[in-house]
What we know:
This protein is α/β, with parallel strands linked by helices and 460 residues long. The protein has 13 helices and 19 strands.
Amino acid sequence: MSIIIKNGHIVTASEDYVADIFIKGEQIVAIGKDLNYKADKMIDATNKLVFPGGIDPHVHLDMPFMGTYSSDDYETGTRAALFGGTTTVIDFILQTQGDTLYNALKTWQEKSKNKAVGDYAYHMAITDFNDKVAKEVVQFIEEEGISSFKTFMAYKGALMIDDGQMVQLMKVVKAHGGLVTVHATNGDMIDSLIAKNRVVGNLSPLYHYLSQPEITEAEASARFADMLHYTGCPGYIVHMTCEGALNAVRQSTKRNQKVFVETCTQYLVLDASLYEHGFEGAKWVMSPPLREKKDQDALWSGINQGLIHTVGTDHCPFLWEQKLMGKDDFSKIPNGHPAVEHRIELLYSEGVMKGKISLTKFVEITSTNAAKIFGMYPKKGTIGIGSDADMVIFDPNKKHIISAKTHHMNVDYSGYEGFQIKGKTETVILRGKVVIEANKCYSAPGNGKFIKRGRTIVIN
Ligand code: URP
Ligand code: ZN
Ligand code: ZN
């Protein structure tokens, strides 16, 4: 199968030009003006943007969490991602405390086998570190193509490790060329605030927000950066939400330290006023919670200052029925919200169209930086000769409205219902195959491939 894309406005993290692209098999073979190749399919991309397929570095598919499972599985989640222009997602395997990493890997391989519609990779979440696990960490990096290890500084009793385990893990990961990633919030502090609120009967979703003040994230982010500095290990902070945490990372750069940072779409475009409408606020009960307008400004600036490298979604959807598990107590509401489908369109509409970020920065934060940090570049994350032909043909002028009635995620509400968007993912190509065209998906379950990853490429 070969495809020629004519006259597209090609955007990468470093360039922005009009040309044709010729694809043969799974890869890009030629890029240039007026290419004269015979192809099985021609796509006219005049007046359209053509950029690399998105990489969402933070999703939770079919994940056991807070007494239930996230409602998108590998089929529905990766399909929804493709509809939005994300061709690769990185999901999290969770180690069960007391059990091995390989047992957890097996469970996640079963979840994804013959189901994924788009490409995927795994982060390995270490919830219980010991000498046996240390050996498995090395095997994961060297044999399994899983080189990033997620840690939690919160969710005590289920996922959290202590600082002693964190430092020992960092030493092993550094020695073998991996990366430690973190949910950086002070779990003990949050647990005590939750307990205090419950005792006095403060039980609505608003108190989820009030139990996780900015300081809980700023303190943990600074502590994580200090531990990285002490061990020399490279690190990545997931779902950063606020000015205080960003300043902690800014401070760490003064000792010439590299700490990679991810924020998520919701923290850039939604704010904590959504918790002021009773139980409706459960739609946005996630950890960390939505923040203030001043934090949104700090995050957009952080992107332009090169302090924030990626924008993911932390896609962790729950049906409304699942959210109702916490109707009488915010601490029982499953944490997470649906977002994987709208990351790219929201960032284009709210970021590029509103003049907050450039087109090349948009590509950097939606695709290229994730590919570099997580060891998939230049196979993924760019439009270049020899790269996988993963790309999005995007209509920059098409207006549409986000709604649960039209989205493809397996969830019965949208956190962005009624949002007016300018810019739409029109055609998506995954490894040389058209998988989204005219609002239809042409990728079957099992077509998505597990992507083995290598080492981080250090970026600025
Ligand atoms: O609320 C969230 N973020 N749920 C998913 C788990 C996590 O902390 O990333
Ligand atoms: Zn988290
Ligand atoms: Zn998450």
